[in-house]
């Protein structure tokens, strides 16, 4: 081995030992007769000392040729430091070097390899190997590793088996666009990369595997956002002979175990909230319940008083921001601008200040008496000193807008602390979602999700009212996982395809294999999948899942290190039976 110890290992009790370390030069401090080198590897940093007169002359010469990120091997004796550094675990000692070898030189790195780097995202992505050399990035990938290990530990102890499913498959209709791969052997035909192993895991249940999981890459050709990547990783799970309750228990346990192992945090039992309640109180199916400020509907108090905006609205709804009655004109304008941004799209914002003296001051004083406003304040549980923020308009849209405003207020008031985790289950999702544009129903989760048995009679009469045995796990406003009890009955599955507008032939062509499988003894089954990258980012306190993926794509879907996607040679195109009519 090229070392006896790592750069994170030596302590005061090693003083006097002869050691050899190998690593990267993080920094050099040359004081003339004394020269220090910070040597870094994955495990830490150790200070090397070269002292004029004590170390051989040639050694000092070699040391003076070193640059940042050179790879060196140094041997010497561990000594106690004169001035200790209590910021690093090896800070009590240094190594008095008596031999030094350059294992490899390095160009000057294009950015600082420190937690606080001067490298922008693009540069860091292009030189990802240097970025990953930074402590902070290494710690993130270590967190990811520990989360994966904890997952396997938990599931393995409960008889789950990890089965790999294929990457070259055909489309699974889960809402997003597929990435496709042309087949050379079958010109004009394509594989698709899986958006999830959904149908395969169900087929594994038919095959009798009973408990399956896989930490698996999935691919979706969607527009990118900070928390999306074209390829991402799921913890994908499926179980047989279970009901919704069994799944909720099992996977609440998994996430508790992961948090305990990775963060040392014991999560409380997860509360459950129906989809309807989540929408009504938070305007979102992924509510951040770290703080309250829940919605209060004011239709009965606010309509019919001559204020047209409210009178013409389907919904008048507000939140009470505690202690914000002293907001200035400027702050209120900021909030109004916030809700008016095109991404949010509210027309305006009504405020009511519940002043310390018990009186009210509002942006709608012309239309509402002090008494009216008092009633609103009471309905909203407001105290003197609070600020009521109210939006009105079409119900669904207004709820979404108020959801954004609530989160903004949560941020402003510091009610969304990073290290507090408040998970919950959102349950009882609608089975179907009506799409105005295409005038048809879409599966809210996916077409294999089972309706609640008691709602099956509504399938023909009022499909929009049918609830599904589907559930999402939400933590701090982030959907970390979702799944459902599946349809395992061939006839019901057929009916579902019919409701979703598939002709019998289309259903057969796309899902014949699954319906066939259902003819041979499909057990009742259900499952869930977690967004692994997101879960890691959440535990690591980062907004961006890119920070937790070793080699992510950038915001426009490119890998700038390997320069992909990239054109391919005309011969390759031809071989694949692909001729670009209008090559760009
Ligand atoms: N396949 C689903 C998804 O990727 C999860 C599941 O239903 O298990 O969202």
Give the count of helical stretches.
Answer: 17
Rg from Cα? 30 Å
Mean pLDDT: 95
Query: Low-confidence parts lasting 5 or more residues at pLDDT below 50?
Result: none
Query: What structural class do the secondary elements suggest?
Result: alpha+beta
Give the strand line-up of the largest sheet: 6-9-10-22-21-20-17-11
Strand content: 15-25%
Q: What is the molecular shape?
A: globular
Number of strands: 22
**In the CATH hierarchy, what is the architecture of the largest domain at level 2?**
2-Layer Sandwich
Would you mind describing this structure in some detail?
The chain is of the alpha+beta class and 584 residues long. It folds into four domains: 12-104, OB fold (Dihydrolipoamide Acetyltransferase, E2P) (Beta Barrel); 135-268 and 529-575, Bira Bifunctional Protein, Domain 2 (BirA Bifunctional Protein, domain 2), CATH 3.30.930.10; 291-412, Gyrase A, domain 2; 423-518, no CATH class. 29% of the residues lie in helices and 24% in strands. It has helices spanning 57-64, 121-126, 128-131, 135-156, 198-206, 244-263, 275-282, 299-302, 308-311, 329-340, 370-379, 395-412, 458-461, 490-499, 504-518, 532-540, 570-575; strands spanning 18-30, 34-41, 44-51, 71-80, 93-104, 161-162, 180-182, 190-192, 211-219, 231-240, 272-274, 296-297, 315-321, 350-354, 360-362, 387-393, 423-427, 432-435, 440-443, 470-475, 478-485, 525-531. Strands 6-9-10-22-21-20-17-11 form an eight-stranded mixed sheet, with helices on both faces. A five-stranded mixed beta barrel has the order 1-2-3-5-4. Strands 12-13-16-14-15 form a five-stranded antiparallel sheet. The mean pLDDT is 95. The structure holds aspartic acid (ASP). Residues 196, 198, 482-484, 527-529 line the site of aspartic acid.
